[in-house]
Design the sequence.
């Protein structure tokens, strides 16, 4: 069993606000993050499987990248995450919620290998990881 | 003469659009950048001067950082650069225009040393540098 | 279950020496590390938990950072680890011993989520990870 | 139990081709990677064990590095992986196959601690990890 | 005057050998680099000019990247620099010679701004810079 | 004319204090830096010259590295810069003073090319550059 990780980047804008809270409450809870701002997100997708004997690869890296771009990046890159992403409606666009969304989008699209980990970095000093509903395999 | 560089980071949202062009023209010229999106900006400020004999320093690094935060970061961090920064009014918030603005804000506030270079990175793959009106000293 | 990682940096001085060994034995075992020297340490703290529905966060990143600074950084930053840190008395200040100390300091201070991993890098080429007494959860 | 990771780098040339496929089939499957090219590989080796009380270390970092250089780097650095590495004969020199080879070379040479993970990066955007035949410990 | 830098990466194989020297002399001079090996090259191209008032840009970053890919990357990426690049014939494929070649390829293709600097990194520990025949502008 | 840059790293301990000032004055001026602490220093040495036609190199990178290690690193690595480096006696071991010392040590040892720039980073957020007494060439 080998784990293969592909990294891609995208940039997006967002703000944190719970619509059921007042502006004051949101500012108290989220600080500066209630203002619209943005990030260069770094996304790492890890899959696991056995290398195919004839290619020596778990999955072709270009095919993996193309899938991530089609399924994830094209929906999040250069977007306002609060307004432009229907799948996030009703969810605050935190890295935690984004990681779960990305897992749910990518998991069903992988064949012959399994999604193992989604890691999303909002900046160089923080990251979240999600391993699916059953936790780390 | 020694050059001293301090790096700080901030994050902000922006979009590119020339108000005198149609939406179609803006999209043709700026591509995806007409959509609101955002970045983790990396700002490097370089000053030059002679180290003071009693401290061995061109300028105290903490004082330089505090100045950059007060004069620049507090005005750009967690902001929508198209709406929240009066000094950018009428200018498209490109890295080029931001670098000139940062120079104009910081230059008059330095004493005993000279501003030498403002470098701004929008992402890991690109940067702009500005050396003031007289070009590189 | 989501894992959230926050990175902080601090710098400190240390040397390696076992007081029960001769200077020669210490130099034979530890090489140049018997000399006082120092590092820019990079500390990654990983917690795990469920995001709160009303915030979309496992823990507020600023609160996590403030806790790490209060509980860890303020005790290690700009210190001589051999002399200035009572909690390290009798222990050689290796990254392994520091990681266990950091775990023991931070673990009891987390509520509503669990400490999952402490990773400490002494330089870009090496790191240690500690997952608590029961090993990796 | 502590995990200790040491990073080393080496550079090598390789191409991807299955000798049982035609040149056209290889190009269709592997794209540009059928051409001879090369990489700066980044190798991370992770071991796990208990720190020795008298040294505070799982293993001396210099001894670990020397072992990795002797057992791995000297056989792969500045080599054409398709022709110069007998242990790879009959295997396409993908990162997956290299990681398994590195595990098999290093594992038997460690005493008093266990090999835990081999991670190999071909470039900044991708990596593979291998945890041995029994999977992640 | 603003300087704008775009970074791209490519990977290639090469070896160092002067055909007028014996194998022994080449090995004595070039060490391990006489063996075929490879690198992930990082190329930074810096141009300088005045931002256009209607766009706020010295040059559109995507147009600059497309030009670098067409004029440089497509000729060097996934290539054996000793055999596959006619423009390098008779020249040892050192970073120095590559930087001059890249300058000569790119310079004539820029309009409305000037090529200012070509920087090529063979690995994280070394780089070369070329500023054209007249030296640094 | 080509510029060639080699990067090396070393680690050392130091503290800032002017012996003519009281402890209180030193703490007021230097803050936490009056405590003994340490860093992973990153040193970049840039030379400039014409590539030799028979090698395509300004200087052999390994020879440049060996020179930097002999002349600089062996005197600063794993040292207490306040006590163990005679050449720094009477000077506060700031990055500014270290950069001038490194220039003075290296410059006379280069033949067939010229020292162009010494850049020293104490941490990822700051650096100093020195171009010699005559300023930037």
Sequence:
């Amino acid at each position: 069993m080998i784990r293969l990780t592909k990294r891609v980047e995208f940039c997006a804008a967002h703000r944190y606000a719970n619509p059921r809270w007042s502006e004051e409450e949101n500012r108290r809870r989220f600080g500066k993050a209630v203002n619209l701002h943005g990030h260069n997100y770094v996304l790492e997708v890890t899959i696991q499987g056995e290398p195919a004997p004839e290619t020596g690869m778990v999955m072709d890296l270009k095919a993996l990248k193309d899938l991530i771009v089609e399924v994830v990046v094209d929906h999040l890159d250069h977007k306002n995450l609060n307004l432009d992403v229907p799948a996030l409606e009703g969810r605050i666009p935190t890295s935690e919620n984004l990681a779960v969304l990305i897992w749910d989008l990518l998991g069903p699209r992988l064949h012959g290998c399994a999604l193992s980990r989604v890691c999303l970095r909002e900046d160089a000093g923080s990251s979240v990881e999600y391993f699916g509903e059953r936790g780390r395999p």
About this structure: The helical segments of chain B are 23-30, 61-76, 95-106. Chain B has a mean pLDDT of 96. Chain B has three helices and five strands.
